[in-house]
Specification:
The chain is of the alpha/beta class. The protein folds into 2 domains: 101 residues, Arc Repressor Mutant, subunit A; 263 residues, pyruvate-formate lyase- activating enzyme. It contains 16 helices and 17 strands. The strands form 4 sheets. It has a 9-stranded mixed β-sheet with strand order 9-10-8-7-6-5-4-1-11. It has a 3-stranded antiparallel β-sheet with strand order 12-13-14, with no helix packed on it. Helix 7 links the parallel strand 7 and strand 8. It is globular, with a radius of gyration of 20 Å.
Length: 415
Amino acid sequence: MIPELVSFVTRREGRKFRHLSPAVGDSIINGEELGGKGGISLYVHIPFCRSLCPFCCFNRYLFDEDLARRYYIDLKKELELYIRRGFSFSSIYFGGGTPTVLMDELSSFIRYLRAQFNVSEVSLETTPRELTEQNIGLLKEMGINRLSIGVQSFEEPVLKTMGRVNGPADEVKSRLLMAEGQFDTLNVDFVFNFPGQTIEQFTADVAAFKELGIDQATFYPLMASPHKKDAMERKFNRVDNSREQQFYGVITRELYRGGYKASTAWCFSRGERMIDEYIIEFDDYIGIGSGSVSIVRGNFFVNSFSLDRYHELAGAGRLPIVGWRKLSEKENLRYYLLTKLFGMKLDIEALRRRFGNNAQSKLWTELAFFKTFGLVSGNGVLHVTGKGMYPVSVMMRDFFAALNTLREHCIEHQI
């Protein structure tokens, strides 16, 4: 009952993010008003892949070298617009797509970032196919702190259904072990509750991960947008969220037994590790690149999903923002609550510093609900309990699913 209730509320709130106004003037985006440097993170979207997964809702295109090289030029132009507005970034996250498809451009762009900012940490995504000895060496030279590998599953039948081309499981495991210990944090991504995926297959994935001895894994529930969901159900099997809690139970049971702890509701680590959810550690973030989104002081911005329009706007010296929403006070508070609970704790004092001394009272209903049903515990700092982890996972799944609907619309209409 509780997961269904939080799902309903989150879906309702998440749909509001899809109601955007036309892009606003540049004056609303001013880094100097944030106060201090490095208090905002930077997400860099690289939308090119060597093959396209049928379940992925992010903005992505088949790799084309000429387009990709043009894209990096545009990316630098966009970043320069933020620099002029007083933004400074210390934490950088590269997502995609597959950021490692063009290593020389990636390396050059990271050097440019380091020349502009006092960069303290860089996270980057890649795939098993890109995890070669040469690439690992190059990524170390670039100073990558956290490398995340999108394995999704070791089970060949599941990968075939997903449309993933990872190579033989033993080869993938060998590549992962080659990268283990080379970075501050090595993360392995998995997907659970994919159509046709069995509990037994997923349990085998978790067991295989534990056997490798890698220090971090992130487990993503299927978060398909409506059209993606319909397409998968036509091709595979029905997307059945009624099984999802069983999958999640495998994660918490087996990972806790293996000495891992929850860094987020989806990410489990041994020891202190970097996590991939910049939305948790930073209240504000800027996303650059085609199809990226930003949140700055309660303003939600969406970049163009069209590579040509992105190129046109960046080339004209304009931020490539095509949609904007000013969150209401309540929406902003609820978004903050969601991200902090997803990160397993809510610091009440930090809440007050950001929203004022009466912020807690404005979330009275929500906090009373979580406390009454034993989903959080504590006073000054509220910690998500074992009972609360799955409901929090459901909340974030449904919020991201709502954003994926927005992405789907923008991709379809090349906005």
